[in-house]
Design goal:
390 residues, alpha+beta, Rossmann fold, Tumour Suppressor Smad4, 5-stranded parallel beta sheet, 6 helices, 27 strands, TIR protein, SMAD_FHA_dom_sf
Length: 390
């Protein structure tokens, strides 16, 4: 039998969940086709083969183990006695990476699985989601698996050279795959940010309503293409750009073309309170706008000012608040040399599976998967699809 590549993924599952195995393999197929990963599960065993030896050999050569966890999975004596022990032993002694996917609600807390990284939020098992949500979740799971298969610095012949220079970008987003207390965050590093309707000219889209719901088309039409402008030059301020629906700060309507200073805690309203944004401001570093109503997905809009920095952690001054940790300072994001940079603090930080030393400044690039303490996020250049950056 030919040697199996070191990037092989071993999938362990209950035969009661065979349909979920099919769905996962379908989502991983583009990576398999390109040769980026090799996936093994027991459907590879031919009737004439000695299945127990085949499974043992596949377990011994796995780089990443993916467990499809359900009540049937946890109830399987074969999985508990034959598959899990060598996987857990290899994870402890040989660096095997274990990821698990909550298929259906189960009592995983009473097993060793609880210690390992879930590739999807256990509070929302895949079977509890609607079909569209399931596909979105499987896309994110596939990205986590791909990142886990990337060679680590210790596996490479030479350690990966640090990337001190960032990839040029003035807009980006952090799409959180793990870390339920943190919403998707959009990053901007520009002197001015245009707020308006979904057009390429707008940096921040104000009108994101499901158009099949009553009155939403009318509400969307009340937003102008260039509705308002936020400036982060000498001080944070906002200007209504002679919009159709109007802009208010703390209930006071702005006069078109006139600048209004922004302060910490201010409430910005658009189009008769159809949309409201709460201001959180650290004057010398950043400004954050939180959507507080009518949002299909809660989002933070974070504007870094010049070479200002934004801390991720549980402290009061953190721009990206993370309540799932006791650490005040997990990592620091900044905008330097035309792009976004992350600096690790006391908490381990990995980028695409490779650790960075505390204090090391590393430029972020399109598609990077970054793990910081309890958080896992994907860095995507461009605030919105189609945006021109750099």
């Amino acid at each position: 039998m030919r040697a199996i590549p070191r990037h092989q993924v071993f999938i362990s599952y209950s035969h009661q969940d065979k349909e979920w195995l099919r769905k996962l393999r379908t989502m991983l197929k583009p990576l398999i086709r390109k040769g980026k990963i090799s996936v093994w599960d027991d459907t590879h065993i031919q009737p004439s083969q000695q299945w127990r030896n085949e499974i043992k050999q596949a377990l011994a050569q796995a780089k990443v183990a993916v467990l499809l966890v359900s009540p049937d999975f946890l109830a399987s004596d074969f999985i508990a006695e034959e598959e899990l022990p060598p996987l857990l032993d290899a994870a402890e002694k040989e660096g095997l990476k274990i990821l698990w996917i909550p298929i259906r609600a189960s009592w995983y807390e009473e097993t060793e699985i609880e210690k390992y990284q879930a590739a999807h939020d256990p509070a929302n098992p895949l079977a509890s989601l609607n079909p569209a949500e399931q596909e979105m979740a499987l896309v994110k799971i596939a990205k986590v698996i791909k990142a886990a298969c990337e060679p680590s610095a210790t596996e490479a012949l030479q350690p990966m050279a640090p990337r001190p220079l960032p990839q040029k970008a003035t807009g980006a987003r952090l799409q959180f795959l793990k870390g339920s207390s943190v919403s998707l965050t959009r990053l901007f590093a520009r002197p001015q940010i245009i707020l308006g309707r979904p057009k390429l000219t707008a940096d921040l889209w104000l009108a994101l309503f499901p158009l099949d719901e009553p009155d939403n088309q009318t509400r969307m039409d009340s937003f102008s293409e260039t509705h308002a402008v936020v400036s982060m030059n000498a001080q944070a301020k906002i200007r209504d750009d002679h919009s159709k629906g109007g802009t208010k700060v703390n209930g006071t309507t702005l006069k078109g073309g006139k600048w209004q200073a922004l302060h910490n805690g201010d409430l910005i309203s658009f189009c008769h309170e159809a949309l409201q944004l709460r201001v959180r401001l650290e004057p010398t570093r950043w400004l954050r706008l939180d959507r507080v109503n009518d949002s299909p997905q809660v989002e933070n809009y974070l504007f870094l000012r010049g070479t200002g920095t934004a801390m991720m952690g549980n402290s009061e001054e953190a721009a990206i608040k993370v309540s799932e940790t006791d650490e005040n300072h997990l990592a620091e994001l900044s905008y330097q040399e035309g792009g976004f940079v992350i600096v690790g603090q006391n908490t381990p930080v990995t980028i695409n599976g490779q650790s960075i030393s505390p204090g090391m400044r590393v430029g972020l690039r399109q598609g990077d998967l970054v793990e910081v303490g309890p958080l896992l996020f994907e860095f995507q250049i461009g605030a919105y699809p189609g945006e021109q950056v750099g």
